[in-house]
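Field reference: sequence -> structure
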Amino acid sequence: MKVYSVSRTIQATPEAIWALLTDASGYPDWDPGMERLEGNIALGEQLKMYTKLNPGHTFPVKVTDFMPGQKMTWVGGMPMGLFRGERTFTLSPQDDNTTEFTMREVFTGLLLPLIGSSIPDLTPSFEQFADGLKSQAESSG
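Structure field:
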């Protein structure tokens, strides 16, 4: 298993942050690592991610968990459990009217020992994602 995670305290409501996380066309405005995101972000929907980290490649993912204002999970990878990436976004309201945002990606599968070393360190792009989301949410709300 290979895990990446990032958290930020954001001065915005979970609803305001959720609106950003579920607006596919808006991702390039605040996520410096995203070229574009295609699809309808809703339970059971397929999305296509085009990232700057791996130009020219499409990463298809499916929305497998969707609890508005709270939690969303995207899953992608290879069939039969050969390789799987599961990215979960969590929003937790705090007592001081802020929201704790967490994004966690877990890579698993039979081929992970072989291809795990080819996965670039996602820490910088996770940090940029969280910082961009925080900045956009705080300036919007």
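Note: The longest strand covers residues 58-67.
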